[in-house]
Amino acid sequence: MHPAITAPEFERLRHLTHSHFGLDLRPGKETLVEARLRKRLAQLGCRRFGDYLDRVARDSSGGELSLMIDALTTNFTGFLREPAHFEFLGQTILPALKKRPEIRIWCAGCATGEEPYSVLFSLYERAPGKQVRILATDISTKALGAAAQGVYSEEKMASLPAPWRAKYFQRGGGQWAGQFRVKQDYRWAVEFRRLNLMEPFHQLPRFPLIFCRNVMIYFDRATQANLVARFADRLEPGGYLLIGHSEGLFNSQGALEYDRPATYRKRGTLA
Ligand SMILES: C[S@@+](CC[C@H](N)C(=O)[O-])C[C@H]1O[C@@H](n2cnc3c(N)ncnc32)[C@H](O)[C@@H]1O
Q1: Does residue 105 sit in the same domain as residue 205?
Q2: 98 shares its domain with 140
């Protein structure tokens, strides 16, 4: 028999995930929460959600809280996901930044790395020899570990053009048969770092382009508006914020203006 979450337990969990992660767990999501956390409760031998929440609260390292957020959110991603943005890199970003010797981009909520690697390969394909540095951040240490390893299954590779496999990946042998690993030089062009978007990031430099795709879907409007304002602050004048195509900023765009689907721009000109 699986434990059901009671209304006070759900409220406690809702408060915890909202204050730490900006997560918007509305009433009605109880079944989802139960399904996503069931395994962890079993691993810890917790019979009730209340016991589990006590465990999370007692763990001052924050590790249990981190595992909880991992279970509640999804790291779903893929190479060249939402291809219009990769066309946009070639058609708009590269011409705007052609005078720069180096391009720096931030992927916020990079999950297991397919997105930042796709950005890197797309830029190298369109501007061979260009220096590219990508900062790729996520809250999930598990996802970041996989991203830094850069090992992907054949199935994951299917969305990449075939010539890119040989160019950017090593094919695994032995116990790694059927797996592909991003070559070291390319892995090193991406810096993976843990960053909770609910915490300050004004210490980061300004970027001409920030990807934050399919992350803000978890946040309520107020959290989203606050985050977008902080992204706008980290954009160079004329810089772009890219979000997922199924997301909308509605009235949260503040200093940014709509440019094209899933693409918002800060006033000014990139150079
Ligand atoms: C669905 S994935 C999106 C991956 C990629 N951007 C894409 O569009 O394919 C959402 C990612 O957001 C991360 N995330 C959720 N809340 C976060 C937070 N408060 N701070 C940083 N990352 C967060 C999750 O860990 C997850 O890896």
Answers
A1: yes
A2: yes
My answer on whether 207 and 92 are in the same domain is yes
Q: Are 164 and 121 in contact (CB under 8 A)?
A: yes
Residues 204, 136 contacting (CB under 8 angstroms): no
Give CA–CA dist 215/197, Å, rounded.
10
Of the candidates 227, 220, 210, 204, the one whose C-alpha atom is nearest the C-alpha of residue 263 is 210
Categorize the per-residue pLDDT at 1 as very low, low, confident or very high, splitting at 50, 70 and 90.
low
Q: 66 and 93: one domain?
A: no
In sequence order, what are the residues at sequence separation of 6 or more whose Cβ sits closer than 8 angstroms to the Cβ of residue 1?
Answer: none
Q: Is 185 a catalytic residue?
A: no
pLDDT at 112 over 80: yes
Give the DSSP letter of residue 5: P
Both structure tokens of 202: 């004004």
Pocket test for ligand 1, best of 69, 105, 139, 209 (most atoms within 8 A of CB): 139
What's the rounded Cα separation, in Å, for the pair 181 and 170? 5
What is the domain count for the chain? 2
Concerning whether 36 is annotated as a catalytic residue, the answer is yes
In this structure, what CATH number is given to the domain that contains residue 103? 3.40.50.150
Q: Is the CB of 196 under 6 A from ligand 1?
A: yes
Residue 65, domain extent: 7-72
pLDDT at 254: 84
β-partners of residue 263 are 242, 260
Determine the pLDDT at residue 3.
78
Q: What is the CATH number of the domain that holds 40?
A: 1.10.155.10
Whether the predicted pLDDT of 43 surpasses 70: yes
Both 218 and 127 in a single domain?
A: yes
Contact, 34 vs 230, CB < 8 A?
A: no
Mean pLDDT value across the chain = 94
Would 34 be classed as within a structural domain?
yes
